[in-house]
Design a protein that fits this description.
Radius of gyration: 20 Å
Order of helices and strands: EHEHEHEHEHEHHHHEH
Number of domains: 1
Number of strands: 7
Structural class: alpha/beta
Low-confidence stretches: none
CATH topology: Rossmann fold
Length: about 280
């Protein structure tokens, strides 16, 4: 038996990266999945790969009418929605506060924050009628600490983490759990996209990032989409039935501080420098 047997999940931003791996894992665990994104060819290809348990619905999460139609179509096709994973995202553009491009800032906020709020708004009546449901929102360590991403992205993710708690307090009484996941530095195409690469080319950089990202956190390997997908699986399943309003950090330990080996090396270097000055 799978952890999600009989459940239906809607996953935004699931044509690549974390969302695509989550869709695959959910299907492996018995769920029917709605793949959601703007890239039609990639979405239809993934749905075909996953078989009869998956369907693709093209959606722009920043558009209220699109999200409303998504929830209505998912319900019409599959009969219920047990999990909504608000995972759609785009990279922020790193710039000093005086150089921020407000048009780009608004796009980042619209995707990460507005999209999450719209998803919760329209899935709530469905889950209320069912008397159950799990909403999962993608936060980020950039929403918890400074220095990991652009001001726009960091602000959006901090807001996502907090609005998750706010809505969890409201909907928990109705049997609906709302939680967030804050990934650390995960090897996906988002870094290539941030560098201005076209989507397809950016996705191909994920594999090359693994070695580069293996030493940025205490766990000495790169974070992978599967790591986040498995946290989402837990939150979507009945195993987390008493978990509500929480932010699960999946980061290999990066937010707890620097690597111990780096500290030892720095202290050894300092000691040598002090001795040399005697």
């Amino acid at each position: 038996m799978g952890a999600l047997d009989g459940k239906v999940a809607v996953i935004t931003g699931s044509t690549s990266g974390i969302g695509a791996r989550t869709a695959g894992l959910f299907v492996e665990e018995g769920a029917k999945v709605v793949i959601v994104g703007r890239r039609q060819a990639e979405g239809e290809s993934l749905a075909k790969q996953l078989g009869s348990a998956a369907v693709f619905l093209r959606t722009d999460v920043t558009e209220e009418a699109d999200i409303k139609a998504l929830i209505e179509q998912a319900l019409a096709k599959l009969g219920r929605i047990d999990c909504l994973f608000n995972n759609a995202g785009n990279p922020g553009r790193i710039a000093g506060i005086a150089e921020i491009d407000m048009e780009h800032f608004d796009r980042v906020i619209a995707t990460h924050l507005r999209g999450v709020v719209l998803g919760m708004k329209f899935v709530e009546p469905v889950m209320i009628r069912q008397g159950s449901g799990s909403i999962i929102n993608t936060g980020s360590i950039a929403g918890l600490r400074t220095g990991y991403s652009a001001h726009s992205y960091s602000a959006a993710k901090a807001a996502v983490i907090h609005v998750t708690r706010c809505v969890a307090a409201e909907l928990g009484e109705r049997g609906i759990r709302v939680n967030s996941i804050s990934p650390g530095i995960i090897a996906t195409g988002i870094f290539g996209k941030a560098a201005g690469m076209p989507d397809a080319a950016a996705e191909r950089t994920a594999e090359r990032l693994k070695a580069r990202l293996s030493t940025v956190q205490p766990i000495s390997r790169a974070g992978l989409p599967d790591d986040v997908a498995r946290a989402a699986l837990y939150l979507a399943s009945d195993a987390s039935s008493f978990v509500n309003g929480q932010d699960i950090v999946v980061d290999g330990g990066i937010v707890i501080g620097g690597r111990w080996s780096a500290l030892l090396n720095a202290r050894a270097g300092m000691a040598e420098a002090l001795k040399a000055g005697e």
